[in-house]
C-alpha cells in the first residue's frame, strides 16, 4: 500500500470512529439481549448516581440501557424506565427535574423504579429519606406511585466538587455530621444489584 493511501485509510477510520463516538448515547456495552425495552435514567454531579444506575442495570441482568439525563435521551422507544439521581440541598439535579417535566407524556405509565443517592451525614438512610427524596420528590415529579424505590448512601470525592460547593459543604458539614468533611464511599454495589433484581421481578410479573 502506498504511504499516501495508508494515511487516507487511517484518516477515514479516524473520522468514522469519531462519528460513532458522537452518535454513542446510552451505555450499550451489555451483552444481554431482551424483548423488554428497558432504560435507566440518572442524574449526577460527581458520579455516585452514574455508578448506581449501571449497577442497577447489572442487577437487571444487564438488559437496561443507561442514560445520563444531560444527553437529553429520547426514551420514547422504551417500555420500562427507572429514574434516579443524587441529592443536593434536598433535591435531584435541575436537569433531571426539567427533563421529567418536559417528557411527562413519554414517561407516563412506564416508571418501574425510582432511586436517590444521598450523603445523610454518613448515617444510614431510613424511612425519613424515602419520604423526602422518593415520595415527596421523585414520585411526585414522575407522577408514579407504588413502584419499587430505594435511597442509597453515596460518597464524597472532594476533588470532584466545584470550589464554591466544596467550601459550602466543608463549612456546614461538622454541624450535621459532627466531624470535618473527608472523602468517603458508602455506595454499595450489592445494594444496587439487589434493587435491580427487585425491579426486574416487578417487570416480569
Ligand atoms: C454541595 C452538596 C450538597 C449536598 N446536599 C445533600 C443533602 O441535602 N442531603 C444529603 O443527604 N446529601 C447531600 N449531599 C451528599 C450527596 O448527596 C452525596 O455525596 C452523593 O453521593 C453525591 O452524588 P453524586 O456523586 O452523584 O453527585 C450533598 C453533597 C454536596 C457536595
Summarize the model shown.
The protein is α/β, with parallel strands linked by helices. It has helices at residues 3-23, 48-59, 94-102, 104-107, 127-142, 163-177, 189-204; strands at residues 38-43, 65-68, 80-86, 111-118, 149-153, 155-156, 184-185. It has 7 helices and 7 strands.
Describe this structure in words.
The chain is of the alpha/beta class and 205 residues long. It has a single domain, classed as Rossmann fold. The protein is 45% helix and 17% strand. The strands form two sheets. Strands 2-1-3-4-5 form a five-stranded parallel β-sheet, with helices on both faces. The protein starts with a helix and ends with a helix. Bound molecules: flavin mononucleotide (FMN). The site of flavin mononucleotide has 22 residues, from helix 2, strand 4, strand 6 and helix 6.
Amino acid at each position: 500500500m502506498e504511504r499516501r493511501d495508508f494515511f487516507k485509510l487511517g484518516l477515514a477510520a479516524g473520522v468514522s470512529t469519531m462519528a460513532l463516538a458522537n452518535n454513542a448515547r446510552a451505555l450499550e456495552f451489555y451483552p444481554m439481549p431482551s424483548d423488554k425495552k428497558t432504560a435507566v435514567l440518572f442524574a449526577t454531579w460527581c458520579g455516585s448516581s452514574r455508578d448506581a444506575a449501571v449497577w442497577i442495570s447489572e442487577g437487571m441482568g444487564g438488559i437496561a440501557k443507561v442514560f445520563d439525563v444531560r444527553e437529553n435521551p429520547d426514551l420514547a422507544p422504551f417500555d420500562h424506565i427507572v429514574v434516579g439521581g443524587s441529592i443536593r440541598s434536598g433535591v435531584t439535579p435541575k436537569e433531571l427535574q426539567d427533563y421529567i417535566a418536559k417528557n411527562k407524556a413519554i414517561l407516563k405509565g412506564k416508571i418501574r423504579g425510582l432511586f436517590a443517592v444521598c450523603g445523610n451525614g454518613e448515617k444510614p438512610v431510613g424511612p425519613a429519606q424515602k419520604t423526602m427524596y422518593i415520595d415527596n420528590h421523585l414520585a411526585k415529579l414522575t407522577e408514579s406511585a407504588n413502584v419499587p424505590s430505594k435511597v442509597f448512601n453515596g460518597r464524597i470525592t472532594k476533588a470532584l466538587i466545584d470550589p464554591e460547593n466544596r467550601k459550602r459543604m466543608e463549612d456546614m458539614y461538622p454541624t450535621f455530621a459532627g466531624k470535618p468533611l473527608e472523602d468517603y464511599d458508602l455506595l454499595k454495589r450489592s445494594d444496587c444489584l439487589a434493587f435491580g433484581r427487585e425491579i426486574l421481578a416487578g417487570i416480569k410479573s
